[in-house]
Design a protein that fits this description.
CATH superfamily: Leucine Aminopeptidase, subunit E, domain 1
CATH architecture: 3-Layer(aba) Sandwich
CATH class: Alpha Beta
Radius of gyration: 15 Å
Number of domains: 1
Structural class: alpha/beta
Number of helices: 5
Strand order of the largest sheet: 1-2-7-6-3-5-4
Bound molecules: adenosine-5'-diphosphate
CATH topology: Leucine Aminopeptidase, subunit E, domain 1
Helix content: 40-55%
Length: 177
């Protein structure tokens, strides 16, 4: 567990659908109608009410975020955000990925949510290099804490041991003592 300006930052290796937080973040696509990877896992675990709410919302631009309840999962809400598809790094990917993290936390603040769990957005089918994506994720979260300081705990949930160890290294560098 790490601490940054009073906010807990933890890393967990595992399945985000099992995490109990005020909100878990979904790496969704622009349609919000479900997909593979973490998106598929969230809709399967949460049940059909999430898709019903997503249909009413009607989609989400890349870098923005929308919110639904979490259905049958232990968390209260799902914040659906859309990361960029990684091309060659010159297509504004970094800013869009940063926005996905930052705007998810702004939405959490609007709903007065204090604990938020993130997957490693864009690093599956969307092909964002994991190391670069991890740096952007951590910077987005730290910037939000600097600017808003309105959150109690951030949990990064990594689906593989490799990505868990990568985040550990990045956070040790940034926040370790
Ligand atoms: P994207 O389309 O944004 O790349 P993916 O779902 O394909 O989204 O992958 C994003 C990340 O989520 C990947 O690192 C993948 O390993 C991870 N992932 C897949 N399933 C889960 C899960 N159940 N819990 C947490 N992370 C997951």
């Amino acid at each position: 567990m790490y601490k940054y300006r009073g906010v807990k930052i933890s890393i967990v290796e595992g399945d985000i659908t099992k995490i109990k937080a005020d909100a878990i973040v979904n790496a969704a696509n622009n349609t919000l109608l479900g997909g593979g990877g973490v998106d598929g896992a969230i809709h399967r675990a949460g049940g059909p009410t999430i898709l019903e709410q997503c249909k009413k919302i009607g989609g989400c631009p890349t870098g923005e975020a929308r919110i639904t309840t979490a259905g049958n999962m232990p968390s209260k809400y799902v914040i659906h955000t859309v990361g960029p598809i990684y091309d060659d790094g010159t297509k504004n990917e970094e800013q869009l990925l940063y926005n996905a993290y930052y705007n998810s936390l702004k939405l959490a603040k609007e709903y007065k949510l204090k604990t938020v769990a993130f997957p490693s957005i864009s690093t599956g089918v969307y092909g964002y290099p994991k190391n670069k994506a991890g740096r952007v994720a951590i910077r987005g979260v730290m910037d939000f804490i600097n600017n808003e300081n309105d959150i109690e705990e951030i949990i990064f949930v990594l689906f593989s041991k490799d990505n868990y160890l990568l985040y550990k290294e990045l956070l040790d560098d940034e926040l370790g003592d």
